[in-house]
Design goal:
Blueprint lengths: L1 E3 L11 E5 L7 H16 L3 E7 L4 H4 L11 H10 L4 E5 L3 H4 L3 H12 L1 E6 L13 H11 L2 E4 L12 H9 L3 H8 L3 E8 L13 E4 L11 E9 L2 E10 L11 E6 L10 E11 L7 H26 L1
Parallel strand pairs: 1-4, 2-3, 2-5, 3-4, 5-6
Antiparallel strand pairs: 7-8, 7-12, 8-11, 9-10, 9-12, 10-11
Helix pairs in contact: 5-6, 7-8
């Protein structure tokens, strides 16, 4: 996959079929769209191109109402590359671009990137005038020499799927449902930082995850079964997101992961968590011994969940 930026262009010797979107989370609907894009490109003897933005348009249009992201830009680029379009056109969504009409944006794609076919996702809209109908896109495209085609809607087992739905699921702690919608687990990356150092004393040493990417969504407070990546190797584990009420650690939010069968000094190292299933809400227990019993139960349950998950991946 070749990446093009706002200052790049394609001469007329290469013709592109393109699809536009944020592609945040790269869920099953996105994969359906890119597959349809590649099919349409092949039918027309064209190359396929995904058009997306470095930042969510709402960060410019409505900064206070912008949604939290499902993945970082680097992760999104990698996920799009895995779907194997020929090109990724990566644009900066700024004040100027936010004022483009659909026709102006189509003209930009046609003139700068040689887009001759536009494959539109189900119910997708673009351009400053968001009430534009599909028939209107077709009409505008005809004026520019751009054929506008509607892609099929994802109608699989987990439909309906959208980035908004996935965000709602993750914010509600329903990470397994979110994983089913996306086709892959929600992943959170950070760095191991110093925390409260309480876990080792009760038999459950934890790594405190900090330095998270700004603007990324977090699952609802609670405990989860997770896969944990350290130094490129995946391990089973469980994580708690919250305020550790039993240990009375104050109001600071912490993300504490217990990595199973692992005992190495990893402070300062990058760490990635894949959220597989919600275990329970965070609640205050009456004693450290009750907390130890609860964590023992959580670990046994997580082992079962993760063993089953890994068996299904093989």
């Amino acid at each position: 996959m070749k990446i093009l930026n706002a200052t790049d262009h394609i001469d007329g010797s290469v013709k592109l079929a393109a699809s536009i979107g944020m592609f945040d989370g790269m869920h099953r609907g996105h994969v359906t769209l890119i597959n349809a894009l590649k099919e349409q490109a092949t039918l027309r003897g064209q190359q396929s191109a995904v058009v997306t933005f470095k930042q969510h348009p709402q960060l410019v249009v409505n900064p206070n109402g912008s949604p939290r992201a499902l993945m970082t830009l680097d992760k999104k680029i990698a996920a799009i590359a895995a779907a194997a379009p020929d090109y990724l056109i990566l644009l900066d969504f700024d004040d100027s671009l936010s004022q483009y009409t659909a026709q102006q944006f189509m003209e930009l794609l046609h003139d700068r990137y040689s887009v001759e076919t536009l494959v539109m996702g189900y119910n997708h809209r673009f351009g400053h005038e968001r009430n534009t109908t599909f028939a209107h896109y077709v009409e505008q495209g005809e004026r520019l020499g751009v054929e506008v085609v509607k892609a099929p809607e994802y109608l699989g087992q987990y439909a309906p799927v959208s980035s908004s739905i996935v965000r709602q699921l993750i914010a509600g702690g329903r990470v397994e449902d979110a994983m089913n919608c996306m086709g892959h687990p929600f992943e959170l990356e950070g760095k191991v930082v110093h925390g409260f150092h309480n876990g080792r004393g009760i038999g459950f040493p934890t790594a405190n995850v900090g330095e998270l990417p700004p603007g990324l969504i977090l699952p609802h407070n609670g405990a989860y079964a997770v896969m944990v990546a350290i130094d490129g190797e995946w391990h089973k584990g469980m994580v708690n997101i919250g305020h550790r009420p039993t240990l009375d650690n104050g109001k600071q939010l912490s993300i504490e992961v217990n990595i199973f069968d692992f005992d190495s000094d990893i402070y300062g190292k990058p760490i990635a968590l894949q959220f597989i299933r919600f275990l329970r809400l965070e609640f205050k227990l009456g004693s450290i011994e009750q907390l130890r019993e609860q964590l023992t139960y959580d670990k046994a349950l997580s082992q079962q969940i993760l063993d089953k998950y890994l068996a299904n991946q093989s």
